[in-house]
User: What shape does this take?
Amino acid sequence: MSAVIRSVVISGVGGQGLLTMGELLGEALIERGFKVSVGEIHGLSQRGGSVVVFVKYGDVQPSPIVVEGEANALVGLELIETARRVQLLAPTGIVLANNYLLPPPASQKIPGREELIEAIRRAARNVILINAVELARKAGSPVAVNMVMLGALAASGAVDLGLADLKGVVEKKFTGRTGEVNARALILGFEEAQKQLREKA
Amino acid sequence: MEAGISAAAAYPGTPSTEILEALAEVAEEYGVYVEWSTNEKVALEVGIGVSMMGLRALVAMKHVGLNVASDPLMSLGYTGVVGGLVVVSADDPNAHSSQNEQDNRYYGLHSYIPVFEPSGVQEAKDMTRELFQLSEEHRTAVILRTTTRLSHSRGEVMFGAVERVHREPVFHRDPERWALLPPYSLRKHREVLERIRTLEEKLGEWPFNRFVEGDGDTLIVSAGFAHAYVREALDWLKVNPPLLKLASTYPLPRALAKRALEFRKIVVVEELEPFVEDQLRAFAQREGSSAEIHGKDLFPRVGELNTALVASGLSKALGVSFDPPRGNAAGVELPPRPPTLCPGCGHRSTYYAVKLAAARARVKPVWANDIGCYTLGFFPPFRMADFTWSMGSALGIGMGIARFSKDPVVAFIGDSTFYHAGIPGLINAVYNQYPIVVVVMDNGVTAMTGHQPHPGSGYGPTGEKRPAIPVENLARACGVEFVEVVPAYEVARLRDAVERAIKYAREKNAPAVVVARQFCALEELRMKRMRGEAVVPYVIDQAKCVKCGICVDQFSCPAIVRENGSIKILTELCAGCGVCASICPAKAIGPLSG
Assistant: This one.
């Protein structure tokens, strides 16, 4: 008997709200009855460093690390960080990338936006680009980029979660205006990814 | 909480910090005393004192913190405890946020304190509760060893009932036990050997250790968290060998070790050093067993394990094929992205000002650095960390250099690190007359680990008021005559103070202390947000900007970037500190108006 374990990698820059995404995904999956491990790779509490979060789930308790070629989905909040982790994706996996480039301060050689997108597309068959900053602003706050990307992930079908599952945990965690903005951002991300996936099909 | 602890003490350190933070959240409600101690040695000693009162205590620290606490730890092995005492050592394989990846299980072996390693989040909770029981039953402290992968993972945990212990605190007066004097020490050594022998027998029955039947004559032994990878790897390989899951890794449970030797081949999977493997080898030799024992010949000793690494090693041992999953790399060269000092961080303006001071004084200092956010001064453009070692070493090692260096030594040390381990060094500098300049980077909290309070903060872990002990008072009390306190954002004042300090140290052959003070920018932003205060960002007047690059290349705030040949401030990142405006030679930067 072989257990089915599925996994998501979330990559980005410290301060973009990756840990919150991992926490929300984990909660939603637990509510769906899965055994979940969320692994966080972050060193210091300052902003600006490269951060990656692993979410693994299945019928048995999984380990918290995703290895090369294992992930069913990669959610990238920044293009350099998306490219950095694309190798973790299984050949059949999907990339949901925020079309946003934030060069590390004081770095000399930085690949261009087009070069990065091309490289990601070469490495992964299925890539969806989302203008998450724009959608987050539309939802009410540029900080809600993480929620837009979570919504997009729900639309991709790569995890056993629907929009309603995520909305449920988001509404439980955030109240007031933040809750409203986050729920709106979630829906906008979901709709955008769904639209692109339909066009592809 | 389920074990009914009365107290918890810790010094923050990744990946252990969250333990005390979580306890602090419920401390008042359940009447548990929690404290951030000055350092790990003090934290452990507080725990020992609570245990002498017959109460249960938990002490938590990162692996290198146990080095600081190792002195009382060694004696604790001899004395044992009254109230249950669990010492959590949060190890950091891969050195994600540490100076090394030392394996603290050896501290258990060294101090005769039993070591336990949970294999997951649920077990970490359940086992901790049981360890308090075991600690009291066998009158011994225990080490609960976690690794980063466990410490920083989330998962479902089923809670049990929270016990409210109403024990009467009574000091267990027993000088012959607690006063470690020569006549009693050898007797205690014999007693502790006996205690470890008893535990060797008892732990064979301990429910967290488990034998699982399987196919074939090769036994897989997993220690602690490695079990999570072993389980997954066996699934990948579609094999079902017999399994020994070890949760107590020192002393080795005798019955289980004996049973392991019945197999022809034994494969030990553990993170970092061959701790269990070597104990098993020694045991096999004593028992005259010819079992073939493998471990670090199959799995790496450096860095973390993962399922692919474990599956690869197990496939070799079991003689089955393994095709590791492969992914495609992006195939472009990517710039590294180390963490940076935040926008508005007072450390940045301090480094900038000290660099200016050194240039004005026409000296090339040796930059002694220490452990904290400010360690990031190592990176360009500052490059102001010639060494970083362990807590407080900027002063100690700096003095050794200063005794013989023609160039001045400038030591950077954070406020929390200063309280933790800087003060004895400073006293030494006064007493032994060292010409060292000490810049205390005071941001009011232990920032790197997430803004925990310290003896200078004025409040405790649950936000309650506590007395504050300012750095400058301590420096003066240590006998330092040159002590100046300057707001870190005031670059010109700070530069002049450091220049005076360099001159003073050289002329008087004595230490000089400059306290560069600015509350942590991240914490400041959070508080402003809570108060509903707006942050007024700064902008560059492009008509006035001469593109000298000082703000973007030499001050290097992450909120200032080059874009299409001009320099601009990302208003969403700007903390509104205004330091860039004060150093701009063209006076082209100002607050956003309107």
Observations:
- Chain B touches chain A through 57 residues (CB under 8 Å).
- Chain B has 21 helices and 22 strands.
- The first helix of chain B runs from residue 17 to 30.
- The CA atoms of residues 198 and 365 of chain B lie 57 Å apart.
